[in-house]
Amino acid sequence: MEPTFRIGTDGCGSCSPPSAQADPQVLLPLPRVRAATTVDADGYGRDGLPVLGDDNSIATTQVYLDAEALPPAPVRHTGPQAETNTQLLYLGGGAWCLNSALRQEQLYGGRILRDTFEDIQAGRQPADPALAQAMQTHGFVTAAGGHPESFHRSLMRQEDAKTEMEVSFTLLRILLTDVCNLSCSYCKVIPNVLAPQAEPTDADRLAEVIQFFFANSEVERPKIIHITGGEPTLFFHQVQHIVETAERAARPGENFWFVIGTNATLIRERQAAFLAEHDVKCIVSMDGPADVHDALRRNHGGRGSWRMVDAGVRQLKKAGAEVSLSMVLGQHNLDRSEEIIEWFLDTYQPTGLGVNFMKPPTPDQKDFDQLVDPDRYADRMYGIHQAFRDRGLFLELVYRKLQPFVQQRYRFHDCGAAGGTNLNVDAKGNVGPCKSFLVMDRLAMRQLDVDAYRSTVVDKWRKRSPIYYTHCDGCQARGMCGNGCAYDAMVHTGDEMAIDLRSCQYTRRFNRLFIDDLFQQVRPQGAISDTWWHRPSRTERQLLFGEVSARPRTLSYSIGHQTLD
User: Fold this and answer.
1) How far apart are alpha carbons 351 and 127 in whole angstroms?
2) Which residues form the Radical SAM core domain (predicted)?
């Protein structure tokens, strides 16, 4: 048997030492017991996650170490049988969907779809032989004597092999400073910084990290240098240094672009002119008009910041800089989100829009009063996408989930940190895969050593994928999930290698919304005939995007989550 390790709930799971076990699987915690001040009648906390009992028990999930550890499923030699991770879903109105979660494949139909699949499951002659053949052709069922888990195992082998690949960075995020001129209630960077320092990242260290980033990336592969903080424009001379240093260090044909994340309160004509001249894309944090924005985004004196943010955005637009807006969705703006986004589009004409799911600001604020339920978040976000997709509005998180569904590509990781493509450097000059962990001085390295990065991240965090987790067996959204955020997993379980249950929940909801939306694109007029069935074409699937597309070298692109490039 292969050796295994058990990941505990107190400390860095990726640093846990190996120990000999009989079972070739890793055990990970599901949500540990937690206190919540607000619990609904069904036992859920304010963040939409279940509040467990008080018996101090911890549920676990198993993680297969590699493809060979996946146990074989029983094989039927007398006829076809369903592939693993295939579900029959009832859509209502006499309509059904056969969903292959790993292949991102759907078959829609009336009662004949249900009956044919159930006949195959029971070993009977199928009600519709042509439909049964289509199920086999497109991977919903295996032929007699086939192994139902073989496609699952092939995906695992594909991911197993990546540990031997060279690191190829696509994102350099520079956390330029530990300080900010605002004091936003939900900020999860500043409150987590250990031993904050007043000075920004040293100029020589920045140059060294930029060289390292380019040296360990592919010239033609799209990549981003993202300048953020704290508030990076507090040290605009260092922003200029980063831009000019990277422009000199870039190799011929280097496919990269600059992005700055800013609150825009310090943007004046000079700063806007520099950013526009060097084509630095600007992501400005704004939660809505003044009454909404100022509720949680205030300065250190407690005064709202909207007026200064608005002035900064207008200055950037006047200079010709590309601007996107980043909105955090919480209790303060959830119910007005469509109205706010319409106002954003009419007022600022942003290239894209980040509508971010609010997370606990610190690990001890799991019951933060602005958190929203994951299902409500998904419903609201996809409703916004449907309302604005024909206007080409790029909603980063919706696109990130919708892309693998539409393109039928398995998403192994939701974050480039787990995929081994993200490099972060903080104000102290430390580097690491994840900004949230880096500011807490976790998974932080001083030496610029690609082998150390690979052994710290690639070899371990690649297992943060639903393809390995038994918790994900049978989940209809398994192929588009990627297991969310390691920071959120750590907040809710104490272990970054565990399941990110909030992402798990809203991803499942997104998946059902996508399945329902695709059905509306392909269904016939009127009542669903018992004998109707249909497999959506690639063109029909593409309708879910509308006019939205990811465009490199613009802000209609995912920053740190583009794992399907």
Assistant:
1) 51
2) 164-391
Handedness of CA 147, 149, 155, 161 (dihedral sign): negative
First to last CA, the chain: 36
Q: Are 381 and 397 in contact (CB under 8 A)?
A: yes
Q: pLDDT at position 369, please?
A: 82
Taking the C-alpha atoms of residue 433 and residue 416, their distance in angstroms, rounded to an integer, is 8
**Tokens (6 digits) for 103:** 């292949």
Strand, coil or helix: 444: coil
The DSSP code sequence of 75-86 is --SSS-EEPTTE
Per 3-state DSSP, the chain is made up of helix, strand and coil in percentages (nearest 5) of: 40, 15, 45
Cα distance between residue 437 and residue 456, in whole Å: 13
> Which DSSP helix (H) or strand (E) runs through 210?
helix 203-215
pLDDT in tens, 282-295: 999 999 999 999 99
Is the pLDDT reported for residue 7 higher than 90? no
Structure-block tokens of residue 173: 């995020």
pLDDT score of 367: 75
- pLDDT tens digits, 233-286: 999 999 999 999 999 999 999 999 999 999 999 999 999 999 999 999 999 999
Is it the case that residue 357 has pLDDT exceeding 80?
no
| The token pair that represents 522 in the structure block | 């392909």
Element (H, E) at 310: helix 306-319
Does the pTM surpass 0.85? The reply is yes
325, 283 contact by CB (below 8 A): yes
Radius of gyration of the chain (CA): 24
| Residue 89 three-state SS | strand
Tell me if the bond preceding 230 is cis, omega within 30° of 0: yes
- Compute the mean pLDDT over every residue in the chain, rounded to the nearest whole number: 87
Q: Is the pLDDT of residue 467 over 90?
A: yes
3-class DSSP state for residue 202?
Answer: coil
- Cα–Cα distances (Å) from 114 to 106, 131, 135, 146, 536, in that order, read 13, 11, 12, 22, 17
Compute φ and ψ for 64, nearest 5 degrees.
-70, 135
Angle between helices 129-137 and 111-122 (to 10 degrees): 70
Determine the Cα–Cα distance for residues 305 and 210; give it in Å rounded to an integer. 33
- Angle of CA points 475, 15, 421, to nearest 5°: 65
Contact, 458 vs 464, CB < 8 A? no
Task: From 378, 302, 369, select the one nearest 337 (Cα to Cα).
Answer: 378
Longest CA–CA span in the chain (Å) reads 76
Taken as a whole, the chain contains a residue count of 565
Taking residues 2-20, report their average pLDDT: 28
For 199, residues 6+ apart whose C-beta sits below 8 A from its C-beta are: 177, 427
Judge whether 301 and 255 are in contact, CB under 8 Å: no
Neighbouring CB atoms inside 10 A of 117's CB total 25
